[in-house]
Design goal:
The chain is 32% helix and 20% strand. It is α/β, with parallel strands linked by helices and 410 residues long. The longest helix has 18 residues. It is globular.
Length: 410
Amino acid sequence: MTERRTFLKTASASPAAGLPIRTRRRARRLAILASRWTPGSPARQVADRFLIGYPREARWHRPAMDVVSLYVDHAPEADQSRERAAEFGFRIYSSVAETLRCGRDRLSVDGVLMLAGQGDDSSSGPSGSDLIEPMVRVFEEDGQVVPVYWDEPLGLAQARGMVEASRQLGFPVLAGSSLPMTWRLPPLELPTGCRVEQALMVGIGSRRSDRYRALETLQAMVERRRGGETGVRSVQAVEGQAVWRAGSSGRWSRELLQAAVARSDSLQGETLKDGRPRDLVGSGELPRLVEHPEACLVDYSDGLRAAVLVLNGAVGDFTFAARLGDDSGVASTQFLLPPEPNRAGSACLAARIEDLIQSTRSPVRPERAWIAAGILDRWMESRKKKGVTLDTPELMLEYRPSAESCFCGS
């Protein structure tokens, strides 16, 4: 296998004109590269949308795409890949190259679903590097590329490698989770070019992937601000009582926290006893409900200050609030997570993946994943270093996002 250092050096070479994108007029042929195919895994959730279909525009929709090949890196006891292959008639190969070439001598698919996340595995860490490098090598050797969807790039090195390879070879990439794509209550999209003075994301969960989703969704909201994205200057992890002290000192806004928590449909505490909404922030009940609060404080290069607060025990939703300039006040929303096991939010993501493969154009700039994965790495590093503020020159990226909205209901 190509060493990661060699791969990154190759991928970051001066951009070329790009390789031709392989296209077909009939049903697109899809290859799946997965870490594992188990209940609750991204492979099961996303791939099933292309095998069985999903609701789209008030009807059941079956994509004009055929899953023709699969590579699975791990096959634990709960593996379902062989069962799915037998049911839907695709073949499982023993290497990434064989999967992309379908056992032939050249690239033989029209799109790649790289489902490298670990799903419900609480020990999941950076993923995808073992799949990216051989995929890129096939593109280079065969002189053709196809669109790629990559779920939850949980490490900076992998995200940067994918983005730089896509720039050099010219293949479109859609990277990230379903959370920025799901329904928003209310259906908030910040206007392109708006002034964002401060932003706050409330998240839940204990896995690395939960933190990534919160950061990615924060980035999806604030990248639309005036001037576009200009990069991240520093990241700091804060835990325990220091989280509340940071709010009291103004590092994150209590007003924004109140607005974000108010969008939750799963308030805990006294609300569970009498069924009435309750101001957890103003009442002072929040610190009692959250046994171990965590925060990631993000300073952007243009002066924007943002924070992600992990409030397990108080809420069960991901919510967002921002203070906008030009007398626009505070805007807030909830990112709807329909109940398991169906996880209907992945249907919204499947629609964007389908659009990517049909149009060979990504609706989302892949630099969003680079920044989110980089902040996540530094968040975890700052935690290990007892909350030291870390400079992030590797995240000084500039880009302008697409003006179109990509979430369900937009």
